[in-house]
Write a structure and sequence with these properties.
Dna Ligase, domain 1, about 10% strand, 3 domains, mainly alpha, 8 strands, about 375 residues, elongated, two-stranded antiparallel ribbon
């Protein structure tokens, strides 16, 4: 009987011991969790404005915690480890460069890492830039990483626009992205091209697009200039585009042209559209989307010639005789502009310009409105 009492007493005490132990453990966990929550939820003091930190590719939990400590954003690694333990496998910090807002806490910072809200840098390539200009700008950008591989991209096959990237984005990947963007634009617009185009493929149309881009930045004129090239191709005429001569000469002769002369027009090479019929060997620059659209869908005109008006636009003509008159007018116009800087008397200025404006102005405006 006494043995039964002792056994009962022993089991009772063991039961109470486990009850007290569980109470202690739950209390301990609650206190630790409460302390942890207060630490990770408490706003970190003295975060400088525009504070940025970088999480390199391949960083593990230990390394990320060390970065936060070194940046003054974490007191002890144990808080980081415990918070990531609570979050479990769903927590997936991304590499990148991050902007840490003022009054952030550890929870906010880990949310930023998990969501990959890294800083995006931008790089803009103007339309009509050549490959060598693009490569130079990419190489000089300090936020990109890696060397450009020895891959020769054909002139005109990189789409010039603004691109966004995270820090240490590989230079080669940016070039591939530009190439893929151009391919996508060409494919999209090729399906919407005019049925009357004389081009065999997208690359030939891209060559014309680069010539349009080199001739004008005026959106209202691009489809008109495209129509001139289109009309000349149909008539088997030489395209006679000055920018093709400049591009080819500089590429072949390895020297820049300061001023284009008749001598340059007579030097034969694969890009000289004065000495050769048909298209130049390759595009002569990287055209923007609007120039590609113009190449794929030119206006329907009777123009075969154009000359720069010296003020960002062009005068167009249907015949060589009209074209010659336009050239004379432009020369006279340049004289007027030159004299205008010295002559204050408007009446004297008017005497210098007896010619009327070229014939095509009204018709060109009507044609643009119609299309």
């Amino acid at each position: 009987m006494d043995f039964i009492k002792i056994k009962f007493f022993f089991h009772k005490n063991i039961f109470l011991f486990f009850i007290y132990l569980l109470i202690f453990l739950f209390s301990f966990i609650f206190i630790v969790f409460h302390i942890h929550q207060s630490k990770v939820s408490f706003h970190i003091e003295n975060i400088e404005p525009n504070k940025t930190i970088e999480i390199p590719f391949g960083s593990n939990s230990e390394q990320i915690a060390s970065i936060l400590i070194n940046e003054g954003l974490l007191e002890n690694k144990i808080f980081y480890k415990f918070e990531t333990f609570i979050r479990g496998k769903s927590f997936n910090p991304k590499a990148g460069e991050y902007l840490i807002p003022e009054n952030s806490n550890l929870k906010n910072i880990l949310d930023i890492f998990h969501q990959g809200q890294s800083i995006h840098h931008r790089i803009t390539f103007p339309e009509c830039w050549k490959n060598k200009q693009i490569l130079k700008k990419i190489n000089e950008n300090k936020f990109l990483s890696g060397e450009i591989q020895n891959i020769e991209y054909i002139e005109g096959t990189l789409l010039p626009e603004t691109y966004f990237f995270v820090k240490d984005f590989p230079r080669n990947k940016l070039l591939i992205k530009m190439k893929n963007s151009m391919d996508a634009v060409l494919t999209e617009l090729w399906d919407k091209r005019s049925s009357k185009l004389p081009f065999k493929n997208k690359f030939e149309a891209l060559i014309i697009a680069s010539m349009i881009e080199s001739e004008t930045s005026s959106e209202s004129e691009k489809k008109i200039i495209s129509s001139v090239f289109f009309n000349r191709i149909k008539k088997n005429m030489k395209l006679q585009s000055d920018p093709t001569v400049v591009y080819g000469y500089e590429k072949v002769m390895k020297e820049n042209i300061e001023k284009l002369t008749r001598k340059h027009l007579k030097i034969d090479h694969e890009w000289n559209t004065y000495t050769r019929k048909g298209l130049p060997e390759t595009p002569i620059c990287n055209p923007g989307k609007s120039s590609i659209i113009a190449a794929f869908n030119p206006f329907e005109t009777n123009y075969f010639y154009f000359v720069s008006d010296g003020m960002g636009g062009h005068f167009f003509s249907k015949s060589l005789s009209d074209h010659i008159e336009n050239i004379k007018y432009v020369k006279k116009l340049k004289q007027v502009i030159s004299h205008k800087r010295r002559i204050k008397n408007e009446k004297k200025l008017e005497l210098l310009l007896p010619l009327t404006k070229p014939k095509d102005l009204k018709e060109r405006r009507e044609n643009y409105d119609k299309n």
